[in-house]
Amino acid sequence: MSVFNNLPAAPSAAKKPVTDTRHGITRTDDYAWMRADNWQAMFKDPSLLDAELRKHLEAENAYMEAAMADTKDLQKVLFAEMKARIKEDDSSIPMKDGPFAYGTAFVTGGEQPRYFRIPRDADHKDESGRKLLLDGDKEAAGKDYFRLAGIDHSSDHAFGIWGYDDKGSEYFTLRVRNLETGEDLPDVIENTGGGGAWAPDGKSFFYTLQDENHRPSKVFHHIIGQPQSADRLVYEEEDPGFFMGVGGSLLDDYIYIDIHDHETSEYYLLSTKDLTAAPKLVAKREEGIEYSMTEGGDVFYILTNDGGAKDFKIMEAPVEAPGKENWKEIVPHEPGRLILSHMAFARHLLWLERRDGLPVIMIRDRKSGEEHSIAFAEEAYSLGLQGAAEYDTDVVRFSYSSMTTPSQLFDYNMVTRERVLLKTQEVPSGHNPDDYVTRRVFAEAHDGEKVPVTLLYRKDTKLDGSAPCLLYGYGAYGITIPAGFNTNCLSLADRGFVYAIAHIRGGKDKGFSWYEDGKMEKKVNTFKDFISAADHLVKEGFTSYENIIAEGGSAGGMLMGAVANMAPEKFAGIIAAVPFVDVLNTMLDDTLPLTPPEWPEWGNPIESEEEYRWIAAYSPYDNVGEKPYPPILALSGLTDPRVTYWEPTKWVAKLREKATGEAPILLKTNMAAGHGGKSGRFQRLEEIAFEYAFAIKVAGKM
């Protein structure tokens, strides 16, 4: 029996067939017209959206509102629950750097963070001693969308670079603030990637400029007081297939220019002793070879997969000659031990690794070579390594949480091995970890692989197949979904849901090979793993097919589209947030921001017929068929540069045209936001409450 009754007629999109022939294969796309030719300009000024498209998106929003009208009260209740679990006037533990310690805080009712500093050894709880550097709520006033890129102080602590995006299009404007007076200087830097790297003298900084196709293709050097037009071009990346970032070393000796796609990287170094010099190449890019660098005084430490080190190793090279010919192995490659990141301080080298799906922080004394680890005993947990803002320190900061344990922040002395608990995440409305169970189970995949699935549910939940389940998945770019504390999903667990995360191939949850087995020609493993996770949860009595709501966003939205086509009967509903569903058309369009850098992840269908056929075989939009799809909720952002608005819009139109069942296909387009949805902390909760209300409605638990 349908939970959606008395709906108005769904919007019907116009068909304007466009034919495309590649490699002798011809396709017809009835909805290609939804990709407006002026998309670059529209991202900067949404009022330029084509009138026909605007009318269609508004009609879709109206239909969605009608379908979800009976959940309005539930959404309010869910929002109130989630908000009540957040300490509204929360603040961070400031990080010490020179004469000051820097932190962030929120005020009751505030949507945006406030950045402050205090004297180095002052009591951080004494708010009277805080100097407000940037008030996010004040800067966001009157704007439909506002996202801060934070504030980065100069080495002399006199100035700060801060950035903001007020369209959702991820074109950031940079400003320079006098940290003593709180006034912004006249400098305005437009169309940047969102941050900068200070020169040691505090009189200039480096930043990346986004080109007309939304790619960070140039690094510029800006001298305070000069117009942006006078900025010196330091480096230009000619290959549109690479991302680029700029940063500085802890010792202020070098500016790093980091160039990479999803499997290849390259670094240039600029010594801060001569800011006018040309940056120097460290090791030229080689396809499939990744490396990243951190400075350790007279050496660089290099994390790399060079030489067949699939799960990565750490090398050392002299600062004066960091070229590959001088790399010397100091932490060897160990299959099954994936090294994720590294950092160095005056007396210690640290790295974050993952063994058997769980993270471990490793610490090595640089002088003696002695190593020890920081690990925990729970079945599934999450670690974050924040490090320190100063190089000459023995104390670093890390965070710990699990699905049932609120986040804890520690300072850790690498010499004495003493850990000091600085803060435990407060849940103002109350939280008893003993009321919940977190487990990690393993689903057998189609080829015999074991897929980890992390579960959270209340102890009193009946595991007889009757419980509804929200099954979340991502599975791309090597991104691992942590088994960390999430106050929002408690609203589902408290309503009898089993909340599950499927750690499918395409992530690095079980090492680098887990990623390789879920990309390019093996991409279908990602989708099959997710379906296997659903099968396992049903087999073990955690839920049943008529009770599983699947959820994923972005590349996880592609996953949602694929499993909807492959096994629609195994899901009661599907939530696809900013879903990357028009994969083939997007990978054929090399003008789009992410297309060339994404070819190593999905394949290049322009150059290769074989890769064209891989993608065509699973691309959700291209494989929509005449079948009874479950209720689907697609979420979109008008100014999203990552998954453009027309992807979910086209997908919904085609689903509605082809679906043989009566289940509604809903599209919600945020007309004032991009990829991440709304920007404020409580505004974001409203969106989550909406998604959860859909899941609860579909599960028949209203």
UniProtKB/TrEMBL annotation:
Residues 1-21 are annotated as: Disordered. Keywords: Hydrolase, Protease, Serine protease. Residues 485-700 form the Peptidase S9 prolyl oligopeptidase catalytic domain. Pfam families: Peptidase_S9, Peptidase_S9_N. The keyword Hydrolase applies. GO terms for biological process: proteolysis. Coiled coil: none annotated. Gene3D superfamilies: alpha/beta hydrolase, Prolyl oligopeptidase, N-terminal domain. One of its GO terms (molecular function) is serine-type endopeptidase activity. InterPro entries: AB_hydrolase_fold, Pept_S9_AS, Pept_S9A_N, Peptidase_S9_cat, Peptidase_S9A, Serine_Peptidase_S9A. PROSITE patterns: PRO_ENDOPEP_SER. Residues 13-424 form the Peptidase S9A N-terminal domain. Belongs to the peptidase S9A family. This is S9 family peptidase. The lineage of its organism: Bacteria, Pseudomonadati, Pseudomonadota, Alphaproteobacteria, Hyphomicrobiales.
